[in-house]
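Protein Record: Sequence and Backbone Structure Tokens
======================================================
Tokens: labelled as protein backbone structure tokens, with as many entries as the chain has residues.
Task: work out the structure tokens from the sequence, keeping to the layout shown below.
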Amino acid sequence: MNQISPDLNAVVKAQVEAAIHAATVAAEGAERFAELQLRTAKETFEDGVKSVKAFAAVKEPADLQALSAKLWQPSLDKATTYARELYESLSATQAEITKLVEAQVADLNKQAVVALDSVVKSAPAGSEVAVAAFKQAFGTANQAYESFVKSFHGMSTLAEAAAPTPRKKAA
């Protein structure tokens, strides 16, 4: 019976732990999102009840316009706050997953370099061209990944700049 090499076993174990960590991060992000949704739904319901009671208490038609204007601004502020909290929750989850992916890729690169060095040392004579081609392909793949990460960080920065910010209340 063949045994799994200790190196391969360590790689598999690290990949399983990384997958568990990624699933945990995603579950925590989903939990934050669900809590935000539930809290927002509850607050919206309570605000709706208050609004209906306030409209029912109006006795003069002219008071309807004033009440409508009075209720509109807090709703807008709450919607802006909701959007900001949603963005912050999604950003935190995305940042954690990005960090995890970057760590995994860095680890994979280290393992690939070690494996490549092992292959180069034991490569038969005349295989220099194939080894050089593989090294070139590996380097190109790393450059493509680094470009992707840079553009992803650029998009994240752009999204962060476009994120809603809470309005200051007039004094």
